[in-house]
Amino acid sequence: MYRMVNAVLAPTLAAEFGLSAAGLGLLSSVYFLAFAVVQLPLGVALDRFGPRRVNAALLLLAAAGGVWFTLAESAAAAIAARALIGLGVSACLMAALTAFVLWYPPERISTMTGIAFSAGAVGAMAVTVPLEMLLRAWGWREAFLLIVAANLAVSLVLWLWVPERRATRQGEPLAEQLRGLGKLLRDPAFLRLAVCVGASQCAAVALQTLWIATWLRDVAGSDPAQVARGLLAVNVSMVAGYLAFGRAADARQRHGRSALPLLAGGVAVSSLSLALLILGVGSLALWCVFVGTGTSVVLAYSINARRYPKEMAGRVNTAVNVIGFVGMFSGQWAIGVVLSLWPSSEAGYAPEAYPWALAMVWAVQLAGLAWLWSGRRLLAA
Question: Which of 270, 277, 278, 318 lies closest to 296 in space, CA to CA?
Fold first, then answer.
């Protein structure tokens, strides 16, 4: 919800805070930057203290950021509040993936990862058509407080109900944890996977969580209700992608086959779909294919889960996330900067600017895939 909400709120936020496309991109993407900054120490904390306690505590910071966001009276305050939200939810996905490694056998990790990402997509769907309908009666600040309430409820569930399990009873000494992290960051196979994640998310997540909405408005000529329905369709395709790739990867791995071809094939189809959009084949169905097949990149987490010991699960996943969220932040902000190079109007941004902005992140996505595939033998080792 937090990640996706600005896609529907974008016109309101831009008008209320006087934001250009670059400013709107920064407001949304600073959330990803806050994620990236804390990922490495977060990984150490997850392995040392366990995913349940770390996630529950940080979610209280997210709630504080959400309240601050609803009270913001300037762009600077809104950006700072959004960064605090990003810091607070920085453990959500990584805590889940770490818990899966601790609780489930390796042959189920891809499916469980798909379920976790799909649950996130359900939250994204909740802030498409339902939010657009709610905004007809409520102000955006009041509506945002509903997300904060859900945030607090999840934190309480984690504190009071979710069980605890760690890889070891006492955890590794901190110095040993840091040495393991350093060794991981020097592993060339790990780096190729992580860079592919970052490059793909630079396009897929950066567009899905903000700029697909403005494309639907400015290029396709959709009204707010049609934009919300379009975003709902895109998020449904994302859920389908996560579940399908997760099940397919587990099936391959049960037979001793790598999930890497599935990952690469999905990203390749996603890249092809974006290329067609750049060339002017404007279609909501293509956006759905772009996002749905781009979900294959999250198989990197399950591939890594099979390559590294359970005791390193937190550090492995968060190290991938550093590059992944740097990619999301960079892509989302950079698209806004490119769109700002053309004169905007009260109706939105210049339609002729979009092919250039999309081509930029497409090139990054394709380069990341090419580098991964060129080193595929490293991942077979």
Answer: 270
